[in-house]
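ASSEMBLY PREDICTION REQUEST
Request ID: AP-0331
Submitted by: J.K., bench scientist
Number of chains: two
Total residues: 994
Priority: normal
Notes: Please return the full assembly, not individual chains.
Input sequences:
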Amino acid sequence: MKWLINLWQTLTKPVKYLTLGTVSISAFIMGIIFWGGFNTALEATNTEQFCISCHSMESKPYQELQKTVHWKNHSGVRATCPDCHVPHNWSRKIARKIEASSDVWGWFFETVNTSEKFENKRLEMATREWTRFERDDSLACKGCHDYKSMDWENMSKLAQKQMKRAADTDQSCVDCHKGIAHTLPDMGTARAPELIAEVGTGPSSFNNKQTYYSALTKPIFLNEKTDVEAGTLNVATKVEVLETKGSRIKVALKGWRKQIGAGRVIYYDFGINMLSAQLEKYAAEEEGVIIGFEEKEDDMTGLKWQRVEVTVWTEAAYMIDKPQPLWDYARDTFRTSCSVCHSQPDEAHFDANTWPGMFQGMIAFVNMDQDTQALVQKYLQQHSSTFVKEEH
Amino acid sequence: MNRRTFLKGLLSTSYFVVSGASVLAPLNALAKAGARKNDDWLTTGSHFGAFKIKRKNGVIDQVKPFDSDKYPSDMINGIKGLVYNPSRVRYPMVRLDFLLKGHKSDTTQRGDFRFVRVTWDRALNLFKDSLDEIQTNYGPSALHAGQTGWRATGQLHSSTSHMQRAVNMHGNYVKKIGDYSTGAGQTILPYILGSTEVYAQGTSWPLILDNSDNIILWANDPYKNLQVGWNAETHDAYEYLEQLKEKVKAGKIKVISIDPVTTKTQNYLGCENIYVNPQTDVPLMLGIAHEIYTNDWHDKDFIKGYSLGFDKFVPYLMGETDGIEKTTVWASGITGVDEKVIKLLAKTLVSGRTQMLMGWCIQRQQHGEQPYWMAAVLATMIGQIGLPGGGISYGHHYSSIGVPSSGAAAPGGFPRNLDEGQKPLFDNDDFKGASKTIPVARWVDAILEPGKTIDANGSKVTYPDIKMMVISGNNPWNHHQDRNRMKQAFHKLECVVTVDMNWTASCRFSDIVLPACTTLERNDIDIYGSYANRGLIAMQKMVEPLFDSLSDFEIFTRFAKILGREKEYTRDMSEFEWLKKLYDDCKSANDGKFKMPEFEQF
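STATUS: Completed
Returned structure:
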């Protein structure tokens, strides 16, 4: 301990023998040496060679990259790991370097050392990268691709439409271009990519007591932790967010159910066969999940219906705050897909209970994935003569 | 033969098959597609199947079925006649009195067949002037441009899409809902079974062949009807009919055809035929239901768990509501079917797995909803809906429904609607209190009784006062019953424009007749198999458009040019660019599922 005190005393004493010039110059030189060393280290860790020195990086992301246009293309320009994954803004870069020390931790504890472990964590890791791309204003992409330098004329009509809109709002590139350099994670919902490109994946944080809408048909759960699915929340269903825990949100859903069986299918309103959610039988019977209120008999079918409120958990992703983008997408799809063989009927030509039968009966002729089908059907129901009173 | 070898068998020039390894073979053949010789066999598709054509001195010489079509239809023998038909519309023609007096012409001369040849330019300008007059004098409720039906195959030149988009660039118009084929069925079935059923993909044939003990063909002649399809027809379903024939022969499946006519199918399968008096199918079904019910053969669990309203049906069946018990004796007297046969039929239906295959013709009768509804009741009583090889279907005679689908995406088509943001020149949406959409078979009534309000599918429809019709690729004179009443209605119209390739009856009663070329005179693209989605088929131009005829794309592009909206109409893309777009969009929709060659190779 004594040497430490001695050292402290020496350091706190004013300099006796050296001139101020000597001290300044030596400090300057030492500064250069340290700074140089720091930069060298920084540079060294900024090469592809360094990145792929870990087996998990070399075997997965690096191999995947080699199959993409970012590896090999007709102009011979290639993106290396740090081009995309190290922030181009200095302070962010330093912050990232510090953050990256967790990778050493991961390496030490073999977090992703097998293919299986890697795949299990792929979505988490990819989400982290996507978030950073967005936070950094897509600078990593814009180092090479700039909205201002894009030749609209050389693009297809569809690309023009999408890119111009993205440029207008300076949209994050990976909003649409996920999976462009590495395998797209299995998001459970790597579904309806065009739809998601149009409506987005939703906000990153939620306000309690505010309403949101599902952008896809999503699994629901009975708590924030379990992996056991308790049913599905139908696309474009309005819910109220009650709380957020980790990646999940607790939501409340209002609707009606038919008093048959376990009453596990939740509809939009009394007597209207517009799907809001379907619960597993056990979940529907679980205490506190469905709370029942008054009952009413439907004259058309003689069935008893009951007003209900449902409280369940779902992943926070793919919940958006306005329904309009969903309806716009559905309207476009309906008008295009359903007019190839005949003129599409007006939305308000049928009522909400007739549309599913009409729509499902023709579905064999169109190319729509499951989510888009469900969305278009709901769009038609929501804009049917049940809700929109107009001459037809 | 398994599916894979079948798919491989489909390989041929200008044809891509939805199977991973399949793109290899056609490429060699296609390499020389650019240097196509006059005497090469060229491929194309049609409602009647795909076929190949060999030309001689620029004229179609020989026609043969597409190599992989193992059950080609005799109809392709008529292809040459389709193109070199003496009744082709050769030039744009205008009815004489219409040419002289326009909208004030003597319309009773319609049908007298006095036409004058004019140039395309003149004809299209007259067309436009007529639309102007109608929109100015009456508004959109006076124009019916919605009477569409089938059209020649091909996704780009689809005649109804072109006509409706082009006319919509000018103004709004009355449209139809439903179709003559399945008008009653597609309206009633959503309320009964939750789907229109008639156009839905049905239980797959392999499941039926493996599981069914009984197959009931009710007013259904698939062997005849499967010759045609909505797109290029594959005739795949015939392979299953052939297997069915073997099973019938071996006594493994019992097939009963219930029909007043001895059908081609019945002859082919060598199956049993029960004669029934025309239009008495419902009493026969009721008699069967009575026999099943009184013997307690009905599936009570199924009825309770999966159906509604049986408790209301039984009192009617037993005569409690109307005093007539629907016994087998009662049914026999009406239907002409022996009582013993009805009893046996009832017993057969509940013995083993029974698949009912309904035809469309019995819903094209008065009260056509009733047999479809009652058949669903029967199927419910049998209680096998949803089980493999059981239940009821309303479409196994159409477009190879029941052939397993490849899951491939089909190409889109030329847009029928205006693009987002485009507005008609006459941007008037005032239909003067009349309906914008009328049921398909009510246009004659609407012309004769404008303003009348009728009940239609749960809502009210008020007939618009129609003064002009535009018809393309469709012959309503062939569709609709009661020609004399139709003739009366046509006399009330100020102007009728028809686009067709032949002088159909509808053309003869028109004022302006525009000649469209046949599918063999233009390039197009189509799905091979509406439901099976076997692949894409290139429809190659075999000969230049005959006489003064033009493709649908060309006709309405010229029309749009007169409106000053040519570029908006075509999105500034040529026929070739459109084909490439339709192909490329389809290619990317299939990306990751099926490998397709580049368009140039295709």
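REVIEWER COMMENTS: Confidence is low (pLDDT under 50) at residues 1-35 of chain B.
SIGN-OFF: pending second reviewer
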